[in-house]
């Protein structure tokens, strides 16, 4: 299929591009048969909620072969770091700590390649925003174009451009609360809207106007020196997210029950 590549804007044969990279689905699939359930849950209108079974991660015809290859190298780097797909990972936890109440954890990382991981994060944000498969809240067109231009030029921008707070959700036993991907949702921060993407126990919170937020809130962002903080927290500490997940579970349970009756 030919069309306009969303990244370089050239007319070309378009590839089936993953919106969320395939390696991020590794714990989401059922083993036999290999599939996962995609849920779109509208909290205040159950009639608009929907579900479907998919055998591969969500893909759309977005990119030409050249731009697809451009993103692939940054995906490979992310797979090696966050998901430890290979043994070439050079990012490591230099220091960790836990709050007195045991609810919050802090992992201070060093050794990231700023360009490679920042561009990966930006590409994830951009694809989710422009995707027709995800019901992402509307984002100002100027931010979308700023992202597209930077990604096309392979420019990671400053550390506080589209800064991302990466969080990992755990239960009381210390296990990561994974195996699901939630539709992107918006929250309000100080001087910035925040677009949140929950993928297999990791929450990627992108500050769309991150230059405007207080310096103290930028501390966790990936820095040019390769340092980044990942915040761990118990899922139960986020009431809003718990409600979203409960609604998804209730809808899924009802759907399965209805299909079986």
Outline type: globular
- As a percent range, the share of strand residues is 25-35%
Q: How many strands, which pairing sense, and closed or not: the largest β-sheet?
A: 7 strands, mixed
Indicate how many domains the architecture comprises.
Answer: 1
Number of helices: 4
Overall mean pLDDT = 85
Residues in helix, %: 25-40%
Organism: Pedobacter psychrodurus
Protein name: HNH endonuclease
Describe this structure in words.
The structure is a single chain. With 261 residues, this protein is an alpha+beta fold. It has one domain. It is built from four helices and twelve strands, in the order βββββαββααβββββα. The protein is globular and about 55 Å long. It comes from Pedobacter psychrodurus. This is HNH endonuclease.
Secondary-structure blueprint of this entry?
Blueprint: E1 2-4, E2 11-18, E3 36-40, E4 50-54, E5 59-64, H1 65-81, E6 92-98, E7 104-110, H2 114-130, H3 141-152, E8 164-170, E9 185-188, E10 193-199, E11 202-207, E12 228-234, H4 239-260
Parallel strand pairs: 8-12
Antiparallel strand pairs: 1-2, 2-5, 3-4, 6-7, 7-12, 8-11, 9-10, 10-11
Offer a few descriptive terms.
single chain; 261 residues; alpha+beta; 7-stranded mixed β-sheet; 3-stranded antiparallel β-sheet; 4 helices; 26% helix
Q: How would you summarize what this structure contains?
A:
By secondary structure, this protein is of the alpha+beta class.
């Amino acid at each position: 299929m030919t069309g306009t590549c969303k990244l370089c804007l050239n007319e070309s044969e378009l590839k089936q591009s993953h919106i969320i990279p395939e390696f991020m689905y590794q714990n989401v699939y059922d083993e036999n048969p290999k599939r996962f359930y995609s849920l779109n849950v509208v909290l205040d209108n159950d009639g608009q909620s929907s579900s479907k079974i998919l055998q591969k991660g969500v893909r759309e015809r977005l990119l030409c072969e050249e731009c697809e290859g451009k993103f692939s190298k940054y995906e490979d780097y992310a797979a090696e770091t966050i998901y430890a797909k290979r043994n070439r990972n050079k990012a490591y936890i230099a220091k960790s700590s836990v709050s007195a109440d045991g609810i919050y954890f802090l992992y201070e990382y060093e050794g990231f390649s700023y360009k490679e991981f920042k561009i990966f994060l930006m590409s994830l944000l951009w694809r989710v925003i422009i995707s027709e498969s995800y019901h992402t809240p509307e984002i100002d067109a100027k931010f979308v174009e700023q992202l597209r231009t930077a990604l096309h030029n392979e420019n990671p921008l400053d550390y506080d451009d589209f800064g991302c707070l990466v969080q990992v959700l755990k239960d009381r036993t210390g296990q990561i609360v994974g195996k699901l991907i939630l539709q992107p949702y918006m929250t309000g921060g100080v001087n910035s809207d925040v677009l949140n993407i929950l993928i297999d126990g990791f929450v990627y919170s992108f500050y769309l106007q991150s230059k405007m937020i207080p310096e103290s809130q930028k501390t966790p962002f990936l820095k040019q020196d390769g340092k980044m903080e990942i915040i761990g927290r118990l899922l139960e500490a986020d009431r809003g997210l718990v409600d979203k997940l409960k609604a998804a579970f209730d809808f899924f349970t009802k759907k399965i029950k209805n299909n079986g009756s």
